[in-house]
Amino acid sequence: MRPAVPADVGDITRIWRQGWADAHLGHVPAALVAARTAASFAERAREQVADTIVAARGEEVLGFAMIDGDQVDQLYLDRAARGGGIGAALLKAAAEAVMAAGHQRAWLVVATGNVAARRFYERQGWVDGGPIVHRAPVPGGSVAVDGHRFVSPGR
What we know:
Elements: E1 2-3, H1 9-24, H2 30-35, H3 38-47, E2 52-57, E3 60-68, E4 71-77, H4 86-100, E5 107-111, H5 115-123, E6 127-138, E7 141-151
Antiparallel strand pairs: 1-2, 2-3, 3-4, 5-7, 6-7
Helix pairs in contact: 1-3
């Protein structure tokens, strides 16, 4: 685990775009799917590189987590890196970064239909705090997405 650097943006963009499609297609409104273009992922990855942790093996980026205050805003793994414990380690590093910044707990949102993600977070000890309407940012505003707010274990 290490802080992301600008040279990681291409890998972050690729992993994010693929992972987002795997996790969200069929679970979010069409307006959000239309807004999530390749260019939008690249732009957001560049803008948020300073708030990103990457899981890397040598120079190869295997996954990333983006932090926004006390929220783990994004967490994705390369398809080839899934199922080997890297996601759990990345989630732990992200939660530790949130708490190191002075917060008691971290939280995140999972799209309601993303059952695999919900199970993953529950296995990591995160608690489903119930339904939430997440305002996903898009150019010119946001799109309402039904989700569940998961909260990390405390300190």
